[in-house]
Write a structure and sequence with these properties.
The chain is α/β, with parallel strands linked by helices. The chain contains 14 helices and 15 strands. Bound molecules: nicotinamide-adenine-dinucleotide (NAD) and zinc ion (2 copies).
Length: about 400
């Protein structure tokens, strides 16, 4: 089969690799019909490269059709249409039964001290082959799937793999009071969708980014937008001016560790990326690598007693955090990978023909798998208006 592989920093290739086969009785093989590229993939493309090995298959946002199931799978059969959550979870351990599927005790990557195994997400998360490929082996497939109806286009359900539950969790963890205000930092796919969900829930939403197309997309759906480049250091003042001098009740950081505007950490990340892998891994494991611009803005913007919801991924081990401010302002912080299956039942009623969240037109690009190298480049550079790119393994390129 063809698969999108990581080969080095900013080096993605499409290779022919062996088809996956059933290895465990609880596995399933799916034929992938659409597969998203995520902002989290960009971290692997750049700063988390030291945890990758050449040839690793990327991707954790697939939808497809079941081709084959292992002998112990009773709730799936060939021909079923399924979305595969980005994390692999068992559904029956202590963590899973509390809805914490990203902490699944059956699949935790204990050698690395990490939570549940993730598809296509480096040694830190189990080095499981990912879903930007023609076929995918799904471990613990009896629980690690969401069955969806055949009929509507892939775009209707694809985002249940990651974008929708992630954005949903971001809004849930932000705990904005009824009728309250929420600032969303970063209007990539996750921030954009978090804005849509928050507006749907009746909150006042202020969105911040520096990419014109992303600001325009959010504004078109009723978000009050602020161009970071236009306000510069005045971001907090601008938001306070809009909120009786207090700041918003909650802030979602949908940016994470590669934020624009943290020169020192940026240098450290770049330096780690230039070291041989083993050494770089050590540097990342023991030193601060995060660019903290978005998190620091969030701490500044949120009103006293408010809540910050971190959904952007952080990876530093010794990040300098202004504890005095967090403590004095009485800020609540919630974070983590999204527990996909926990939120699916809340989201499904919104995936109807009337499409209140606009999932059917959410992707800006649908490209053949072969176009993955250019697609990654375009998504990282945010060129050609790219916000969400979906790969189509069945399409032939050029
Ligand atoms: N927690 C989870 O389960 C989960 C799941 C998916 C994605 N993520 C993370 O969410 C984050 C966003 O993902 P995405 O797919 O939307 O990616 P993205 O990279 O397209 O979006 C990030 C956006 O932030 C903007 N930005 C950069 N610096 C900023 C700053 N200082 N202030 C405001 N905006 C700034 C960028 O212009 C960009 O539009 C990533 O860190 C990704 O890893 C987390
Ligand atoms: Zn993702
Ligand atoms: Zn579990």
């Amino acid at each position: 089969m063809k698969a999108v592989t990581w080969q080095g920093r900013r080096k993605i290739t499409v290779e022919t690799v062996p088809d996956p086969i059933i290895e465990q009785p609880t596995d399933a093989i799916i034929r992938v019909t659409s597969s998203g590229i995520c902002g989290s993939d960009l971290h692997l493309y750049e700063v988390l490269g030291p945890y990758m090995s050449p040839g690793d298959i990327l991707g954790h946002e697939p939808i497809g059709i079941v081709e084959e199931v292992g002998s112990e799978i009773t709730n799936l059969q060939k021909g079923d249409r399924v979305v595969i959550p980005f994390q692999i979870s068992c559904g029956s351990c202590f963590m899973c039964t509390q809805g914490l599927t990203t902490q699944c005790e059956t699949t935790q990557v204990k050698e690395q001290g990490s939570g549940a195994a993730l598809f296509g997400y480096s040694k830190l998360y189990g080095q499981v082959p990912g879903g930007q490929a023609e076929y995918l082996r799904v471990p613990h497939a009896d629980f690690t799937h969401v069955k969806v109806p055949i009929g509507p286009s892939d775009s209707r359900y694809l985002y249940l793999s990651d974008v929708l539950p992630t954005a949903w969790q971001a809004v849930a963890y932000a705990a904005t009071p009824e009728g309250g205000s929420l600032a969303v930092l970063g209007l990539g796919p996750i921030g954009d969708m978090a804005c849509r969900i928050a507006i749907h829930r009746g909150f006042r939403v202020i969105g911040v980014d520096r990419v014109p197309e992303r600001l325009a997309r959010a504004a078109a759906r009723g978000v009050e937008t602020i161009d970071l480049d236009a306000v510069g250091d005045g971001l907090t003042d601008t938001i306070r001016d809009m909120t009786n001098g207090r700041g918003t009740d909650s802030v979602i950081d949908a940016v994470g560790m590669e934020a624009h505007g943290s020169p020192v950490a940026s240098f450290a990340q770049r330096s780690a990326g230039l070291l041989p892998n083993a050494l770089a891994e050590k540097v990342i494991d023991t030193a601060s690598i995060d660019r903290l611009a978005a998190l620091l803005s969030a701490i500044d913007i949120v009103r006293r007693g408010g809540t910050i919801s971190l959904i952007g991924v952080y990876g530093g081990m010794l990040d300098p955090i202004p504890m005095r401010v967090l403590f004095d302002k009485q800020i609540q912080l919630r974070m983590g990978q999204a527990n996909v299956k926990h939120w699916v039942d809340d989201i499904l009623p919104l995936l109807t023909d009337s499409d209140p969240l606009g999932v059917d037109s959410f992707a800006t690009h649908r490209l053949p798998l072969d176009a993955a190298p250019e697609a990654y480049k375009m998504f990282q550079k945010k060129s050609d208006g790219a916000v969400k790119i979906v790969l189509d393994p069945a399409a032939r390129s050029r």
